[in-house]
Amino acid sequence: MLHSFFALLSRMKYIHRWALMRNAREENLSEHCLEVGILTHALCLIGNKKLNKKLSVDRAVLRALYHDAAEILTGDMPTPVKYRREELKTAYKKVEKEAEERLLSTLPDYLEEEYKKVFFPEEEENTAYENKLIKAADKLSALIKCEEELRSGNQEFATAAASTRRKIEEMAEELTELKIFMEDFLPAYGKTLDELTE
Question: DSSP per residue over 90-117, as a string?
Answer without folding.
Answer: HHHHHHHHHHHHHHHTTS-HHHHHHHHH
